Amino acid sequence: MYPLSFGDLGRAFKKHCAEHWDTAVEDPVSDKSVYLSEVEFPQPFSVSTTVLGNGLLIAVSLHSVHGRTATPTEKLDREVNELTDTLAKQVAASLRAPNPRYSCNVIEDHKSTTTRLERLLLLACSSPDGLPITSDLNDQLLCNMATGKRLMESGAYTEIVNSVEGTLFPGPKLYQWATRIGRCENIVCLARSTVQDLVQETGETIAILSYDANTKRAEFVEVIQGWRPIQYQLAVRTEVPLYAGAAGKAVLAYCDAETVKCIDLVKLTDTTITSRAALADELKRIHERGWATGSGERVPGAFGLAVPFFVDGVIKGSISATIPQYRKDDRDLPGLTQRMLEASAKIGRLLSLGLNARER
Predict the structure, then answer these.
(1) Runs of H (alpha helix) within 253-295
(2) The whole model's pTM is what?
(3) CA torsion 55→61→65→71, rounded to 10°?
(4) Helices (H) and strands (E) in the chain, counts
(5) Is the CB of residue 311 less than 8 Å from the CB of residue 179?
(6) CA dihedral for 327, 333, 339, 344, sign (positive or negative)
(7) How many whole angstroms separate alpha carbon 195 and alpha carbon 340?
(8) Per-residue pLDDT tens for 320-356?
(9) What is the pLDDT of residues 177-190, one digit of tens each?
């Protein structure tokens, strides 16, 4: 929590509010001395504030990495203002882009006020770039237009949602809650116990692969070693190729065609797939059956079995078992595959908000 009367950023926020808002803004921190000291933060060369299209007020500041005393100049002010304008334009462009429509999973007490409020929060969180307030939104809240309007007005009053020009956004209270909770490795935290049970049951080393659709990158975020003799040590927090090995292919089979097309098929081992036609056939088979295998494509001498998991219908990663090839034939692979399918489905349920993406 940052006090509005503290430091250059706080004062910039307070100045903007005073110039553009009719009502006084209450400082969220009453005792500044308990939290922060002015000397802890270097004076910025320039500060620029603006209100984004989703209603959030942001500040961009420029500081010296060497802690030098700031000397403001028109050039620096102009560059910081240009950056702020660029951010505002990017947010505005994302608001104009078509958003997927979501439907909430129906639960038994589906018309209570509590459930309607939960649905409102789920829909707001699923569309941080804005959700148009239409009759379809009222349908998702399981209420008529008048009830939906009252519900959204109550949400806006308590600042859990925000309405800007007919579009619903997460409110400042939601962002404040998220900040209090802090950034955590949700996939690892929520999936670890399921994977540990799978390791205990099968004895094999199981890895959790996380995929970021924005950066097109995948990496192992957790590896739990098995108890059977001879296991592979897999590094975490290193990029995993999507085209080589079972873990990556289990994800790539559910990515869009452009993602597949942009991948460079670099030969990593003698069995790495480097033919686009062969890769397309392999991904088609994986998509049809729901799981992937790989034999020494990324790690020589290793056999991999992987199953993808989805968050609210969107591919987010995979879980994979890495087995030495010499004892692959001794394993009940159909049984192992079934256990991994069940585990991935459980992980998907744990990570999902309870929303299903629908095409417009």
Answers:
(1) 257-261, 276-289
(2) 0.58
(3) 180
(4) 12, 12
(5) no
(6) positive
(7) 9
(8) 999 998 888 888 999 999 999 999 999 998 888 665 5
(9) 776 554 445 688 88
